[in-house]
Amino acid sequence: MIYESTPLLTTNRLILRKYTEDDLPDLFELLRDPQVNTFLPWFPAGTTEDAHRFLHERFLSQYQKPSSYSYAVCLKESGHAIGYVCLSDQESHDLGYALRKEYWRLGIMTEAAAAVVRRVKEAGYPYITATHDRKNPASGMVMKRLGMTYRYSYVEQWQPKNIPVTFRMYQLNFDKDTKQTYMEYWNRYPIHFIEEIPGQDR
């Protein structure tokens, strides 16, 4: 596997790059929005100090690791960071993302995430996973457009909000000959099951 720290990526409309301290105002706008953060585990940021802590913990500290994919999603035309895409360095290789709501339904997150997926495939990752709250099917649509397929659902008491959430777990194997499924969430959470999702082959 190739080890690299968030290499620069470009698409038709976007630049995907490392976050910097200068991105704090844009990140705060994303993190403070209750609607954007409805289906994320943390509460909306109340202050710039909250956003600054998030910037360091979730992004800047990741760049010190041998390999990381933690991106600011920026518009080419303005350079502003309007969202993020991250890949966990844990065994799950979990893909996570968020986007300012004024840019929803424009295909931007699919475009950004697809660039990251192509890069980690080239880097030799065997697979990626992603999860979404069952009440947030729009996030699941991004996963489907990336070629990910639904594997199973599970119920987690999500922290720090301390609410039960039913998650759907999706996976994309880069080796087309394997049917491997990442089973950690299934094994960890007692309530787990397989749903029948219209239009989704497993």
Characterise this structure.
This protein is of the alpha+beta class and 202 residues long. It has five helices and nine strands; from the N terminus they run ββααβββαβαββαβ. The protein has helices at residues 24-31, 48-58, 108-122, 137-145, 184-188; strands at residues 9-10, 14-17, 69-75, 81-87, 95-99, 127-133, 149-158, 163-173, 192-193. A five-stranded antiparallel β-sheet has the order 1-2-3-4-5, sandwiched between helices. It has a four-stranded antiparallel β-sheet with strand order 6-8-7-9, with helices on one face. β3 and β4 (81-87) form a beta hairpin. The chain is globular and about 45 Å long.
Give the helix/strand layout.
Blueprint: E1 9-10, E2 14-17, H1 24-31, H2 48-58, E3 69-75, E4 81-87, E5 95-99, H3 108-122, E6 127-133, H4 137-145, E7 149-158, E8 163-173, H5 184-188, E9 192-193
Helix pairs in contact: 1-2
Sum up the structure in keywords.
4-stranded antiparallel sheet, 5-stranded antiparallel sheet, alpha+beta, 202 residues
Give the terminus-to-terminus CA distance.
27 Å
Summarize model confidence as the mean pLDDT: 95
User: Count the helices. How many?
Assistant: 5
Cα radius of gyration in angstroms: 16 Å
User: Which percent bin holds the helix content?
Assistant: 10-25%
Strand order of the largest sheet: 1-2-3-4-5
Largest sheet: 5 strands, antiparallel
Order of helices and strands: EEHHEEEHEHEEHE
Assembly state (oligomeric)? single chain
* Low-pLDDT stretches: none
- Bin the strand percentage: 25-35%
- Shape category: globular
Number of strands: 9
Instruction: Give the helix/strand class.
Output: alpha+beta
